[in-house]
Amino acid sequence: MLHAMASETEKAHALLQTFSTASVISSLGLGFFCFVVDQLQQFSYIQQNDWLRALSDNAVHGVVGMWSWAIVIGLRKKSDFTEVTLAGFLSSVIDVDHFFLAGTLSLKAALTLPRRPILHCSTVIPVMALTLKFIMHLFRLKDSWCFLPWMLFISWTSHHVRDGIRHGLWICPFGKTAPLPYWLYVAITASLPHLCSFIMYLTGTRELMSIKHGIHIDV
Ligand SMILES: [Zn+2]
């Protein structure tokens, strides 16, 4: 639930917590990881093998999703790893829609689709996140699962932005953008967890999480 109006003190507090030293170092690390792993992917051995390229690319989506969520929650307990794994899964799983649209498990067919599959439309992200929030509200799951719409948002956005280096962002039904500049992809990926944390602090989602999950909040 949105707090009616966050006071100036609350905002300042949220900002401080969002940019803790550990989280800033982790997101710089994430940006660096993206850069290094994208260089590694250029090896011709990987580029010449369709399956290897697709699987390693998907694995990177997963790791970026995991890393991003780890920055948001800060890894402190064993159970946090379950959450982080779920974020990685959400980040990777949307590539399955290539195969759904192709109607076959043939990688060649999945890679040469006449159009982009629906989960790669960025408009779907806010729609799905809000639908999820609504469903959770309906079933009164909002306390223990309050993080889920945010996890979906961050996992899917990082995936779309990473795909966006080559394909641009597809904002259906309005069309698509030009391919994203590489620096923009790295900058968005590294700052997304902070943006997410900040809004979560402001909206009280972090408080609910810390009560339910025992996440230690410090400055
Ligand atoms: Zn994709």
From TrEMBL:
Keywords: Membrane, Transmembrane, Transmembrane helix. The keyword Nucleotidyltransferase does not apply. It is a multi-pass membrane protein. The keyword Cytoplasm does not apply. It is found in: Membrane. InterPro entries: TMEM267. The chain crosses the membrane at residues 12-37, 58-75, 87-107, 119-139, 182-202. GO terms for cellular component: membrane. This is Transmembrane protein 267.
